[in-house]
Amino acid sequence: MNRRARARAKGPARGFVLVGFWTFFIALGVTLLSTAVIAYLPVPVALALILVIVAVGIIADMIGLAAAAAVEAPFHAMAAKKGYAARQAIAIVHHADFVSSICSDLIGDVCGTVSGAAAAAIVFRIAVAGFRVDRDLLSVLMVSAVAALTVGGKAAGKGYALDRANYIVYRVAVFLAGWQRTWS
Fold first, then answer.
1. What's this model's pTM, rounded to 2 decimal places?
2. Chain centroid to CA 14: how far?
3. Around Cβ 30, how many Cβ atoms within 10 Å?
4. In whole angstroms, what separates CA 68 from the centre of its chain?
C-alpha cells in the first residue's frame, strides 16, 4: 500500500485535524501580524494592505480551483520534451486535492477572515482617533465592502480559473521551479 492509500485509509478525520491545526496557527500569526501592522500604518496604507490581503485570497482560490480543473496530459507531453517546470505542473495536478485544500481552504479562507479583522481594526483606529462618525455604521460598511470585494473577486476568479486552468497551473509551476532553482 503506497503512502497516499495509507493516508486515505486513516480517513478524513486525520486530514480535518491536520488542516484545522495549521489553519489555526497560520490565522493566528497572520492576524496578529496584520493587526499589529495596521495599528501603526496611516489609514490609507492600511486600506491598501486590506486590498492586498483580499487579492492574495482571490489568487489562492484561483490556484486551488485551477489545480483541481487542470488536465495532466499536456504537462506529460511537456515533460517528455524536457519542458521547463513540467515536473512541478504534473505534481500540482497529481496532488490537486491537497493543493486545492491548501490554496482555497487554508489560504483563501484565512485571507478572508483576516481582511475582515483588519477592517474592524481600522474602524477601531478611526473611532479611537476621535473622528465624529457612527462606529456601528462604519463597521458595517467596512466589513460589507471587504466581503463584497472578496466574494466578487473569488466569483470572477473562478470563471477565469476554470477557463485557463492549465495556464494557471503552468504559471504556478514556473514560479515553483524558479523558487526551487534559487533555493536549492
1. 0.84
2. 22
3. 19
4. 15
**Strand, helix or coil at 142?**
helix
How many C-beta atoms lie closer than 10 Å to residue 57's C-beta?
Answer: 26
**Number of helical H runs and strand E runs in the chain:** 9, 0
Dist CA 80 CA 136 (whole Å): 60
d(CA 64, CA 59): 9
Distance CA 56, CA 112 (A): 9
9 class by beta-carbon count within 10 Å (0-12 exposed, 13-18 middle, 19+ buried):
exposed
Cell matching residue 108: 483563501
Of 121, 152, 146, 149, give the one whose Cα is nearest residue 135. 121
Give the Cα separation of 20 and 56 in Å (integer): 20
> What CA–CA distance (Å, rounded) separates 46 from 88?
35
| pLDDT tens by residue, 4-18 | 555 555 566 666 777
32-62: pLDDT as tens digits: 887 788 878 888 888 999 999 999 999 999 9
100-136 exposure pattern, b = at least 16 Cβ within 10 A, e = fewer: bbbbbebbbbbbbbbbbbbbbbbbbbbeeeeeeeeee
Whether 140 contacts 147, CB under 8 Å? no
Q: What pLDDT does 121 receive?
A: 85
Give, to the nearest 10 degrees, the angle between helix 165-183 and helix 43-69: 110
